């Protein structure tokens, strides 16, 4: 079994907070992950078919989101099958154990496979993994699990649980329910066309893919070991780990909870044991607060903050980087974490303003990639793509610019860099400094532009969490994957926090 304490101590010395090499800049040798990939295709959103297939996002925004109703049907069908009424699962993990959390994994290209070597290394001896949202891009299809789930995690020798993300819902959750809950497809309810918002939506809405069962059987054989198997009772669940509970919620397409799930969450959260929430939408992200509404009143965060419910951390995917907000609630500190760096194209951190949300001080906030590296990454990408060499900012310049903008001490030591007008304009155009318009570096970039970049060169700035539980405390560590061999051999430790239990 890997000695995570020792790996973390080494990882801390070689992180992006220590050197540019630690961030994966100046990569000499590309990682072994290349050999694991089924092909060298880059995941593409620009394909009109891909966009058409993920149209449910747009339709849900225009005509309302039918997912809560579909979720009720999935949940009712599972209850009929006789699953635990509170969707509890128990895994015997012993007194001291560890597990991994990966967010937003399923692109099936270099950005996903680059995470695998480090994940396998630090995952050795862990009891299980959890995928926090967006298991499969673009639409969660059951026919795409082979290369985006079973193949990448074939050598991970423990069960993998998951909560769905919005992308998994673009398939009506059909793929997710089939693979994780072993559920039969829902009977499609055909309604005659009505000239109404829901009628229009029904007409255009993408139905779940019919799953090619023999092909899925073949794919599942890539994870054949008994110790790799696990079945979830529903898309939301409680994992009983003895002294700790892991509570997974399903935030659907729009990022809220239906009434039935809200009641369930209140019920299972009344257990006094310490808990970690796993969600498809982070509660604190990019210096914003999203408490996650529950149908009929109240929010998920009301429950997380309630001292009686004893949540110590809330971890969410959806945004493809790592962020940690230690929020003081009464006499406790709850760790609100974004962990969406497990496989999809990186979302910028350099657009995160100076942090003050929830009373968190900028100096307590952590993110990966560092804002300066994020700015340099996007400047490189756009300067190449747009053939505008002046747009490029070195990592050192990126760090100097973002430290000046945010007003913090640069998180990585570097020589004093004079800030020129050219650098300022580049930073503005890339969203690091305020300007009414800037080039897309977040969701829009990911959706419409990332594939144009054919980004097959490290660093990828991917990350995953290693969580360990011992008698008195819980440790959450964020390890990086850059796609570079050096960081596969010694995964950098980008952040670590200890929580007393
Ligand atoms: Fe995502």
What does this molecule look like?
This protein has 501 residues and is an alpha/beta fold. It is built from 18 helices and 16 strands. The longest helix has 15 residues, at 371-385. The chain starts with a helix and ends with a strand. The structure holds fe (ii) ion (FE2). Residues 104, 134, 165, 318, 340, 344 line the site of fe (ii) ion. Fe (ii) ion binds at residues 104, 134, 165, 318, 340, 344. Residues 98-179 form the Calcineurin-like phosphoesterase domain. GO terms for molecular function: hydrolase activity. This is Metallophosphoesterase. InterPro entries: Calcineurin-like_PHP (IPR004843), Metallo-depent_PP-like (IPR029052).
Identify the notable features of this structure and list them briefly:
single chain, alpha/beta, Purple Acid Phosphatase, chain A, domain 2, eight-stranded mixed beta sheet, six-stranded mixed beta sheet, 16 strands, 30% helix, binds fe (ii) ion
